[in-house]
């Protein structure tokens, strides 16, 4: 996307996680993870929850993830929970209407299989997701190039 300051490539898995929904209203992304408005203008939601899965490519690999949320459904703010590999307790967070809220891991995970589950925190909240990124953690090869680093 030409307006992505991090020069990321965004691909669509439209329909892969729920019912597609979009808006023409521009949604600004601020803070640490800036996402193009076009990415936040599309989402998927599912009343039965959203499951995001991937497998570790090789034993011992660690991953970080960023999930992007912006409420674009029915003029509402949803309260959701996120669970990783069904471990408790779930992490609660809000999805504000026409605003963005990234949720991210600040420490890497080392699982063979990954399952991120998004669920409504109450009876009226519907899980929604706009985008997600998964980063494989690489350790630098060799030592520092300058001894005082």
UniProtKB/TrEMBL annotation:
Alphabetized InterPro entries for the sequence: Malectin-like_Carb-bd_dom
Main location: membrane
PANTHER family: OS07G0107800 PROTEIN-RELATED
Membrane topology according to the record: Single-pass membrane protein
Cellular location(s): Membrane
Highest taxon listed in the record's lineage: Eukaryota
GO-annotated cellular components: membrane
Name of the featured protein: Malectin-like domain-containing protein
Residues annotated as domain Malectin-like: 2-137
Lineage of the species this protein comes from: Eukaryota, Viridiplantae, Streptophyta, Embryophyta, Tracheophyta
Residue ranges crossing the lipid bilayer per the database entry: none
